[in-house]
Amino acid sequence: xxxxxxxxxxxxxxxxxxxxxxxxxxxxxxxxxxxxxxxxxxxxxxxxxxxxxxxxxxxxxxxxxxxxxxxxxxxxxxxxxxxxxxxxxxxxxxxxxxxxxxxxxxxxxxxxxxxxxxxxxxxxxxxxxxxxxxxxxxxxxxxxxxxxxxxxxxxxxxxxxxxxxxxxxxxxxxxxxxxxxxxxxxxxxxxxxxxxxxxxxxxxxxxxxxxxxxxxxxxxxxxxxxxxxxxxxxxxxxxxxxxxxxxxxxxxxxxxxxxxxxxxxxxxxxxxxxxxxxxxxxxxxxxxxxxxxxxxxxxxxxxxxxxxxxxxxxxxxxxxxxxxxxxxxxxxxxxxxxxxxxxxxxxxxxxxxxxxxxxxxxxxxxxxxxxxxxxxxxxxxxxxxxxxxxxxxxxxxxxxxxxxxxxxxxxxxxxxxxxxxxxxxxxxxxxxxxxxxxxxxxxxxxxxxxxxxxxxxxxxxxxxxxxxxxxxxxxxxxxxxxxxxxxxxxxxxxxxxxxxxxxxxxxxxxxxxxxxxxxxxxxxxxxxxxxxxxxxxxxxxxxxxxxxxxxxxxxxxxxxxxxxxxxxxxxxxxxxxxxxxxxxxxxxxxxxxxxxxxxxxxxxxxxxxxxxxxxxxxxxxxxxxxxxxxxxxxxxxxxxxxxxxxxxxxxxxxxxxxxxxxxxxx
Length: 666
Ligand code: PRX
Known about the structure:
Blueprint: H1 13-20, H2 30-35, H3 41-49, H4 52-61, E1 70-76, E2 79-84, E3 87-88, H5 90-103, E4 107-112, E5 118-122, H6 123-139, E6 147-151, H7 156-168, E7 171-174, H8 181-191, E8 195-199, E9 201-204, E10 207-210, H9 212-218, E11 228-232, E12 246-248, H10 249-252, E13 265-266, E14 270-276, E15 284-289, H11 291-304, E16 313-316, H12 323-335, E17 339-343, H13 354-362, E18 366-369, H14 371-380, H15 383-386, E19 395-399, H16 405-415, E20 422-425, E21 459-462, E22 474-479, E23 489-490, H17 494-502, E24 509-517, E25 523-528, E26 532-535, E27 538-541, H18 542-550, E28 555-565, E29 569-578, H19 580-587, H20 594-607, E30 616-619, H21 633-640, H22 656-665
Parallel strand pairs: 4-17, 6-7, 6-8, 7-14, 8-11, 11-12, 16-17, 16-18, 18-19, 19-20, 29-30
Antiparallel strand pairs: 1-2, 3-13, 4-5, 9-10, 14-15, 15-23, 21-22, 22-24, 24-25, 26-27, 28-29
Helix pairs in contact: 4-11, 5-6, 5-7, 5-12, 6-7, 8-9, 11-12, 14-16
Bound molecules: adenosine-5'-monophosphate-propyl ester.
């Protein structure tokens, strides 16, 4: 379905004006600044060193088996090669070297299961587990360059599996456990994965919840490239078993040998593929490679969160199925030798204070979370966090979507007792690591703004023609220079990589986000300017959900928009035209659409996953289209957000919006 581009200025005009008049500023305390990892001189250092800045970081943050000869090869732009000629092993850097340095007894993972079971895994133990998994994977025929799908809940085996792949040079493709069997199968097929690592299930809101049946369904035709399914026993619910294909983790990995030598892989060796929604129906397999990705995740994790690995307890409350979990649960923190907290469940199980109970219990000092979670907890009330001792917290991070100033203030005041820096970090699956963020101890923070490109990153806001906008103006966010953790392409589709990111503006990476510079030159992010929606910090494309809807037998056509939502940032609102008799029946005056609407919502849940279920499904008899047949989603968004419908003059039939609004009133 064709799409209509909206100008970034329209992203959220009124809210933005309020934001830009946000006058509050929070300079770091002298004490914080004096002890901070980041120093103000870092910006000037990066500026004068150019790409050599990253060469320094690469050598400082990582232990290379073989040093690199060239920092950046951009001769085949936009296909970058960083740290050319270097050899490095991600798992060795995240694990073995910490043990060799005498830190084997430090806790790597504090796991808290939803039912309250706990596991503390030291660096020495995690190293052994990863070596065993590496041996087991190899014994199953998985070798360098092979793809492994990881479809697991938030349990330590997810981290173990990722690092075991990285150790042997296999390429992991983590699929969010909340995705459907269809979504899993599509990702398995696209990457031609050999092995799936999964679990019998997990726990959700106090009950066992299954995972393996989705894998069984995904592989039911027996025609996939998958040779083995490795199953972690988590909730001990009964599972179906395919002899010869399925293997228990405890029979395989737990019995494998603990000797495994990590060899360095080429700096540009593929590390992982992670699928993310674009503007078309088919998710893109974003490809990340080794040396550059590890360098930037380690550097940003250390400087943006002010990490002191000997004393900090770091908790990133994302799921491992998203890029935040990759870069800031697994790679960044473990490369830096941090102690991380990993929590399996939902924030309100068994009670709404669970997060704060975890902070108190583990003395979490750095918390990284999404605005949608912060807004939800804000709604639940200040008295809940007030019951817990949160005094261990010293840095708070936000990621995934714009954070509104009220939520930012609440986060700092109520959770950070008014003293912790809050870092609003902008980045994407594609950028691999944080790109725009304040630096704690350096930046005078403004509630709601990501503010400035990190040292070594060249971000800008440009107008339609690619010219930098003056302070006080809006435009499109671009990255002007290659960066180490940048995606190296879209799996199997180099042309789509060029078209999506490098064709909108000559020689610049187009992020797909609207942005504005305030009078001080600080950057404010305004949300997507394409048909990608951001639901609770998760990316979904309108077209993907439209395709899911039209795959339902009753649906003739559909249009999906992301409407503002107080809690989730945006919510999915679908406009649907039904087929044949249903069309008349359900658009008639007084028709009860509740059953068909529930059916359509569930259908989307089954096709993509519960996160994609529309908040609202509106049955209509027409959709607004231009003369060339493009759906004008802007007008539908007006309806979904209860606004006066905007200019309809470019519609082929200008009466359509009247029909829709009148029809919905019925
Ligand atoms: O629109 C931006 C929004 O999330 C998109 C990237 O989504 P994804 O690849 O799923 O990665 C999310 C976690 C890094 C961006 O294009 N986004 C992410 N962080 C912010 C943000 N929008 C505003 N402020 C942020 N801090």
